[in-house]
Amino acid sequence: MPEKVTLVVFSGEMDKVLAAFNIAIGAASMGMEVSMFFTFWGLNIIKKNEGSIKSRGIMRKMLNIMNRGGSHRLPLSRFHMFGLGKWMMSKLMRDAKFPTVDELIATAKEAGVKFIACTNTIGVMGLSKDAFIPEVDSFGGVATYLAEAKEGRVNLFV
Amino acid sequence: MPEKVTLVVFSGEMDKVLAAFNIAIGAASMGMEVSMFFTFWGLNIIKKNEGSIKSRGIMRKMLNIMNRGGSHRLPLSRFHMFGLGKWMMSKLMRDAKFPTVDELIATAKEAGVKFIACTNTIGVMGLSKDAFIPEVDSFGGVATYLAEAKEGRVNLFV
Amino acid sequence: MPEKVTLVVFSGEMDKVLAAFNIAIGAASMGMEVSMFFTFWGLNIIKKNEGSIKSRGIMRKMLNIMNRGGSHRLPLSRFHMFGLGKWMMSKLMRDAKFPTVDELIATAKEAGVKFIACTNTIGVMGLSKDAFIPEVDSFGGVATYLAEAKEGRVNLFV
């Protein structure tokens, strides 16, 4: 039976996202079974980059404009500087042949990492399932997470 | 013997707090034994909302004014916008019938979640035990935490 | 066989660093085997305080000026206020006889805590190994981390 790894991806900041995917892909390529639970700002990583995010009510619409998300729109947790810091970091990563978030998503899926989107946050933010990329395997709540985590050898909150 | 879950609640931001309580309550309602260790800014969650925070020395007094805390005063980690973002998020949560922090605290206690407040931080911040809500089960340091965490199936740092 | 504890230290903020070291030192002094994996902003903790950080290319040089790091230069995650909040917190810690980051590093090493610096981030940021303090035991990637974490009783991401 393969060893399990679970990651709660709460943060939607590019630097934390890179750390989470590195661990996920590393573990999957070592034969471990990996699940990533995207919740709160972490849902931004798995939102579609194209089109607009639909939601009902003026406040939800405002929230979903401010918090548009999508793998191309993730800020840095430090030195974001209205995008300049992020642009620099992205360039340094390209120079160092470090993969982009999109490439990390693709590699994670190839390696068999499961993507689960948190239904609780989706409800509060008024999002619908078609706001998300097709790489998402399933939608679930905290019970889904805990069922996996209690069998996990490594469980992290990022 | 019930499976254990431990959460170090370091952060005092409302969004992270919601995630921590969701996991804690979910786990307790699945029959797991849950301990939440409130440390640093996380202590703000379990401070009384009423009255003033007493402490000795001008700098501690300043810190405890800036960092007043209490479940009604937790900022958001993103889009706080001097309270506007938080007000919006609170309204969206009410619309979605999502519980408030106070309701989460009450539900967690009913479900048997243990609240432990970190004595180290309390010392540095010059707080006294009566700054905290009566739902706190005990006060302890890192040894208390580790004694539980090393038996934990799921240990998270939030 | 001693129980293992692993900490991914992603954050370079003084408050989170204190929490991480407290757990590490606590665990080591209880006879547990502790490894700290410093990655991303967490690398700042284990950079030398003296001298300048050498790197190639104008953007890396800029990044390494902004993100100079070193145990004496860690900001607070809240109330940093251009250094005022940090200065206050440092003073409160001294008053409460709480150790400084440098003392925590020394105590952790005496207690046998292993320091591992993340080679992936070092590559992206264009750092060389001599930017780091001699207390670093080794340099490694995600496979090194996972090999330890999967045997860990307590694995945290800070």
**Strand order in space, largest sheet of chain A:** 4-3-2-1-5
Assembly type: homotrimer
**β-strand number of chain A:** 5
Overall residue-averaged pLDDT value of chain A: 91
Class by alpha and beta content of chain A: alpha/beta
Strand content of chain A: 15-25%
Largest sheet of chain A: 5 strands, parallel
Tally of alpha and pi helices of chain A: 6
Low-confidence stretches of chain A: none
Task: Please describe what this structure looks like.
The structure is a homotrimer of 158-residue chains. By secondary structure, chain A is of the alpha/beta class. Chain A is 39% helix and 16% strand. Chain A has helices at 14-29, 58-66, 84-95, 101-110, 119-125, 142-149; strands at 4-9, 33-38, 114-118, 138-140, 152-157. Chain A has a five-stranded parallel β-sheet with strand order 4-3-2-1-5, sandwiched between helices. In chain A, helix 1 runs parallel beside helix 4.
List the helices and strands and how they pair.
The structure is a homotrimer of 158-residue chains.
Chain A: E1 4-9, H1 14-29, E2 33-38, H2 58-66, H3 84-95, H4 101-110, E3 114-118, H5 119-125, E4 138-140, H6 142-149, E5 152-157
Tags for this model:
158 residues, homotrimer, 6 helices, alpha/beta, five-stranded parallel sheet
